[in-house]
Amino acid sequence: MQPSLFKTTPVLAAVLLAVCGTAGASSHREAPFITTVPKVDATDFYMFRSYETDRSAYTTLIANYLPLQDAYGGPNYFSLDPNALYEIHIDNNGDAREDLTFQFRFKNTLANSGRGVELPVGGVNVAIPLIQAGVVANVMDANLNLAETFTVDVVRGDRRKGTTTSVTNAANGAATFNKPVDNIGVKTIPNYPAYAAQHIYNVNIPGCSTPAKLFVGQRKDPFAVNLGTIFDLVNAPVSTITNPDLIGAAPNIIDDKNVTTLALEVPTTCLTSGSETVIGGWTSASMRQARLLDPTPKPGHQKAEKAGGAWTQVSRLGMPLVNEVVIGLKDKDLFNSSKPKDDAQFATYVTNPSLPKLLEIALALPNTAPTNYPRTDLVTTFLTGITGVNRPANVVASEMLRLNTAIEPVAFAQQNRLGIVGNILAGGSDNAGYPNGRRPKDDVVDISLVAVMGGLCVANGDTNALGFGTACNPAAVPLGTTAFRLHDAVDQAVVPLMSGFPYLATPIGGTR
Hints:
The chain is α+β, with helices and mostly antiparallel strands. Helix content is about 15%, strand content about 25%.
C-alpha cells in the first residue's frame, strides 16, 4: 500500500459519500411504488456461465424477488403473488428487445379442496391457522396446509405477441411445478437442504435439444452490504473504507435476510443466436392494470382482491444499483415500467451522473468527481458492453446485463471478486465476472465504485483498449489510481454460496 495515496482524506470522504450510495442493498426497495408491493420487487439479477463441474455448456439465470425476508416471518411467510407475472428476458442480437422470455406464474391452493387442514375440536372440524400441520419432508407433503405451485412458459419474440410454449418436467411431462415452503425452522423441516433439493427439476424447453434445470424457492440473500451505514451518509471511518486490507471490516447488515429465487440453468446454445456470443438479460415483474379489493374474501381463495386488465410492468432489473443511485427520484417509477429499447430517455443520468456533483455542493468540497463529460466510460460499461469483452457486434445502447458466453467460466475458488477490475489490478485472467454478466461472488459494490469514479478510464489510458472513447481522459479523474482502492468495507466474497445449481445458499430458518 502507498500511504501517499490517502493524504486527501476530506476529498476521499466526499467521493465515498457520492458513490458508496451505490451500495444500497442492490435493488431492494429502489423506487417509490415498488415499496408498496414487495412481492414483485426484484432485488438482484445474475447471469453467468455455469461454473459447477461439468456444466460449463450451460448459462445460469437467477432472478431474486421479495426483499428483506425475516426468517421468523410466520405464520404466512413469503409466497409470491398469483396475480403477477414474473419474467426473465434475453436479447441475443443486441437490438435492446427481448428475443426469449421465461414467464413464471404462481398459484396458491389450500389443502382439503380449499377448506384447509382441519382438526376435530369438540366434535367440530375447524381449520388450522398455520401453513403446516406437522413435520414437512417431501414434495406436496401431506402436512402442508398451503401448496404453492408455478408454471413456466417460454416466449420467442415480443413478450406479449410472440410464440408461447410451456416448459415441462423432463421426468413426467407435467407443466406445473411445486415450490418448496419457506424455511419455517428445524422442527417443521429437520433437513431443509434435502427437502429443497427435491424441488430442483430437469425440464424440457421447447426448441432446446438438451434439458435445462429449474428451481424456484426461498434462498439466503446472496448480496452483502453495510446498508444502514451507507445510507447514513457513509457513517464509517474513512481510514477503514479506503484501506484495501479492510474490505471485510464491517458486518453484512442483511446477512440474516432471505429472498425468493427464480433460477434456470439453460444450455447456452438455446440462448444465443447465430454467431453472436453476447447475450443481454434482465428481469421484470408485471401486475394487472386494475385491482379490485374484495370486501368479503371467499373462503379458500387466500386473497382479498380481484385483478384484471392489461399487464403493467412495475419492476425492472438488469445491472445492479442503477435505479437506486443513477436514475433521478422523479423517474424511478418510470424506469421500473420501461423497456431497454426506450432507454435513450435516461441517457443523461449515465453521461452526466448527478450524485457526485450534488454532494460536492452539499459538502462544499469541489473537484472530487470525474469531469470527463459525457461519461462515455460509463456508457460503455453499463449501456453497450466493453469492446473485446461483452459488446455485441451490433448494439443499441440500453441498460441490461451483458454476458459473452464464449468466455470460459472460472471455478468458484479461483474467481476474482472484482471481476474485470480485479484483472486490471492483478493482471489476472478472470473476465467471466461483472460487468461481463454477474456471478453471486462478484462484489458489484466495489466494482461500481471503481467504475463510477473513473477507475476504468484510468486503466484505459491513451490506448482506448477498452473502447471507452476519446472522452475517457485519465486527466479528468481527480482520484487517478486511488479510485481502484475504494470499497464499502463489506466483503461480498465471504457470503456462503453453493458450488452448484441453484448456487444460492440454504435460507436462514426460523429456528436453527
